Amino acid sequence: MLTLGIETSCDETAVALVEDGRLLGEKLATQVDMHALFGGVVPEIASREHLRVLPRLYKELLAETGKEPGEIDTVAVARGPGLLGSLLVGVSFAKGLSLAIGARLIGVNHLWAHLLAPGLTGDLCFPALGLLVSGGHTHIYRIQSSIEFELLGRTLDDAAGEAFDKVAKLMNFPYPGGRYIDDLGQESTPDKKLFPRPYIDHPSLDFSFSGLKTAVALHVATRPDLVFETMADPEAVANLAEDKRADIAKICASFNWSVADTLRIKVERALDSMEGVKSVIVAGGVAANSLVRKTMAGVAKKHGLELTLPDLALCTDNGSMIAYAGWQLAKAGCSHGLELEAIPRGQV
Ligand code: KG4
Ligand code: ZN
């Protein structure tokens, strides 16, 4: 079964072809440099870019994989969550294409797709605990199978990735700043008393990262010398002067530890309340974080569970994961009609 995946939920335009669960090819265009000028994603620019780029990527994908439109059985598209205007570009393209070539149409939950992405490179082991940590979401799921997800906990305000990006912005790192915090943090050791681990005393599996960001803001306010004057370019971060470097690295390491350890506490709490779980799947952009990966490896080992992490290239938004999730849904007999809607937030 040949499945086309279309991803336009935020600032990455991507298409991919998956044949019976195997990736044939992907084309991806990132808008990150464009939005970096504004320090965050500008929704209108994102939508216009998707509209401009998507048809070209689709044609290039077919040419590179040697496939004809008529060979596509299923058109899978990220229907949400995400930016409404951006989602509408992908959903409209998918509808038109499925109608033109007579293919099945399937709207995919972008978050489920993130969690299933490691299935492209290895076997997934269910039931699983799924931790989705991205720029827009921090969710804990019980995943019974590739198409059965139960949401157990979520962030009440900022997502983990958002916290990384906002803290990075406080120090004027380039956008998106998560990976700079990760890289610099590895040069230091965390001061575990410096920042709180937010919401861990609350018995639920929910998260709240906005207080942590405020704690970092208050700390950074006492050290204005550590803030880059202008939104620094990656070279500026790489060439950071020695006298500032150690102090900035300490803040990064401490903040990173607070996030990773908060995730650990809630994941362990979830595991304690779940029966029959065989693996932990961690996905989303923040799953690229070295300390989060190491921490979750420790959790899995302690609980005798398999740990599944996507390859780094599959952590951030891509079309392959949409095609793969769409294929799973198609195999289970799911499909949507032309009334398929984009769902920017809430239950997708
Ligand atoms: O999953 P994703 O591409 O976007 C959403 O679907 O929301 O994740 C992007 C997020 C950004 O917040 C980015 O800063 C963060 O993932 N990120 C990281 C790292 N690499 C990407 N955060 C921490 N450490 C990293 N190494
Ligand atoms: Zn995503």
UniProtKB/TrEMBL annotation:
InterPro entries: ATPase_NBD (IPR043129), Gcp-like_dom (IPR000905), KAE1/TsaD (IPR017861), TsaD (IPR022450). It is found in: Cytoplasm. Pfam families: TsaD. Signal peptide: none annotated. It catalyses: L-threonylcarbamoyladenylate + adenosine(37) in tRNA = N(6)-L-threonylcarbamoyladenosine(37) in tRNA + AMP + H(+). Residues 23-324 form the Gcp-like domain. Keywords: Acyltransferase, Cytoplasm, Iron, Metal-binding, Transferase, tRNA processing. Its cofactor is Fe(2+). Substrate binds at residues 132-136, 165, 178, 182, 289. Binds 1 Fe(2+) ion per subunit. Its main location: cytoplasm. Its EC number is 2.3.1.234. Fe cation binds at residues 110, 114, 317. PANTHER family: TRNA N6-ADENOSINE THREONYLCARBAMOYLTRANSFERASE, TRNA N6-ADENOSINE THREONYLCARBAMOYLTRANSFERASE, MITOCHONDRIAL. Belongs to the KAE1 / TsaD family. NCBIfam families: gcp_kae1, T6A_TsaD_YgjD. Required for the formation of a threonylcarbamoyl group on adenosine at position 37 (t(6)A37) in tRNAs that read codons beginning with adenine. Is involved in the transfer of the threonylcarbamoyl moiety of threonylcarbamoyl-AMP (TC-AMP) to the N6 group of A37, together with TsaE and TsaB. TsaD likely plays a direct catalytic role in this reaction. This is tRNA N6-adenosine threonylcarbamoyltransferase. The gene is tsaD.
